[in-house]
Amino acid sequence: MKRTLVALSVALTVLTPVAAHAQFSVSSLMGGKSSSGGADLTAQNDELLRGYVAASKDVLTAQSKMADALGMKDEAVKLQASADTVSNGATKDNLADADKLLTDTAKAVAEKLKANPALGEKEKATFVAGLASLGSGMVKYVGLKDKLASFKNAVTTASPLALTKLGTGVYIVKSLPDSVTTMGGALSNAISYAKGRDIPVPADATKALSNLSLS
Question: What's the whole-model pTM score?
């Protein structure tokens, strides 16, 4: 009986690491630890996208109002349509299209402002609303800096397969600094114009201009 117990004890000692290894292998195949990491990256990607979309909606609306105030009716319609349609289900191509529209319009608006046009009361009110929305959007852009840094660090260790599912997050990592620079310049131009024409500058716009850093 003693001999049997000893033999059973030895067998269990040998089999335990094998069973543990088998359990680890099955867990990995079923997406255990690596699946958890992938799920976390996906969640970070989605959270970053939601924040970027929210900021983009404000900025697109802002540019639409400014363009409208300056008589750029066609551009205003396109921008507002983009603001209405960009969503949390956006692809990187959708985001890139919206950003290109913003960049192109920012240049056109800047050219208009250089001429220091006079605005009627209605147009002034529209311009002020645009300034408020632009300030709000810029605050949201800059507010993404911690999420951006976290995702950027995490994605450096992601597998090539995982990266194919994180297209929007990877796009935002590359584009957000450019968006802040471009739209920060647009905000600065708009505030300078407003002050030169005694147009009131909303608090959100002033607050945003004082902090345009992602670092």
Answer: 0.81
